[in-house]
Structure formats: C-alpha cells, structure tokens
Amino acid sequence: YTVLVFMTQRLLWPLTDLGQTLDLYQRAMASTRRIFSLLE
C-alpha cells in the first residue's frame, strides 16, 4: 500500500509542476500581448 501511495505521488508531482508551468506561460504570453498593444 505504501508503495502505491509513493508511486502515485511520484506521478502526480510532475503533473502539478506542468500545470504551474503552463499557467505561467499563459500569463507571460498575455503580458507580452499587452506590451505589444501598448507599443503599437
């Protein structure tokens, strides 16, 4: 049972990391768009 929990955590941590990275990326893209619209 402990091994199952451990393996599940090992699988889920990268997924949460990926989610945070995608969120950050989307925010960065939105900011970039805003900056470019100000420059035009």
From TrEMBL:
Primary location class: membrane
GO cellular component, one term: plasma membrane
Keywords: ATP-binding, Membrane, Nucleotide-binding, Transmembrane, Transmembrane helix
Subcellular location as annotated: Cell membrane
GO function terms (MF aspect): ATP binding
Record bears the keyword tRNA-binding: no
Membrane topology note: Multi-pass membrane protein
Record protein name field: Efflux ABC transporter, permease/ATP-binding protein slr2019
